[in-house]
UniProtKB/TrEMBL annotation:
Keyword terms: DNA-binding, Transcription, Transcription regulation
Alphabetized GO MF terms: DNA binding
Coiled coil: none
DNA-binding residues: 32-51
One Pfam family recorded for the sequence: TetR_N
Record's keyword annotation contains Methyltransferase: no
UniProt protein name: TetR/AcrR family transcriptional repressor of nem operon
């Protein structure tokens, strides 16, 4: 039975979303094409009808995950967003969490297309009004951009460091607690 163009597009989108989740959970090298396609409900052979290579899918899935991460923050007060972001709940759910915190280290060792997807996603996130404490009059000055980059780096770094510790290690929670308190204090001081 022939698949319609609309169904093929929906199937591709489903594969990309599934890949985005699996890559955040297991890393790029932790997911094979066969496992990914099975998780999406398709056969391994259908992969190359949608993508030229796994690297092509990795770039598209990264862009998808970065957009989903940005959308999740939309409409939240910055302090509330950062309180959640630098938390055990976020730390313990990488598949549903931020793509940057889950895959930045992996992306650094991937092809240029994956790095480009990350650069575009990070740049878009840095330029989002939600990352500036001057809402609704967003500070577009170089200093404002520098503050947003620093906040993002601290938040992502806290989650990455915490995830690198054993789940039951007191240090994992200590990192989150100290970094969350520091970031929120910096926001309150402005």
């Amino acid at each position: 039975m022939k698949v319609t163009k609309a169904q093929a597009q929906a199937n591709r989108a489903h594969i990309v979303e599934t890949a985005s989740t699996l890559f955040r959970e297991r890393g790029y090298d932790g997911v094979g094409v066969a496992d990914l396609m099975a998780a999406a409900g398709f056969t391994h052979g259908g992969f190359y009808k949608h993508f030229g290579s796994k690297a092509d899918l990795m770039a598209e899935a990264s862009a998808c995950g970065l957009a989903q991460s940005a959308d999740a923050a939309a409409g939240m007060e910055l302090a509330d967003f950062l309180s959640y972001y630098i938390s055990r709940e976020h730390r313990d759910n990488p598949g549903q969490g931020c793509t940057m915190a889950a895959l930045c280290a992996d992306a650094a060792r991937q092809p240029a297309s994956v790095k480009a997807a990350f650069a575009a996603g990070i740049d878009a996130q840095v330029d989002r009004p939600a990352l500036d404490d001057a809402q609704p009059g967003v500070d577009v000055s170089p200093d404002g951009r520098a503050r947003r980059i620093a906040l993002m780096a601290m938040a992502v770094g806290a989650v990455v460091l915490s995830r690198s510790c054993p789940d039951d290690a007191p240090l994992a929670d200590e990192i989150l607690d100290i970094c969350r308190a520091d970031v929120l204090a910096r926001l309150a001081a402005r």
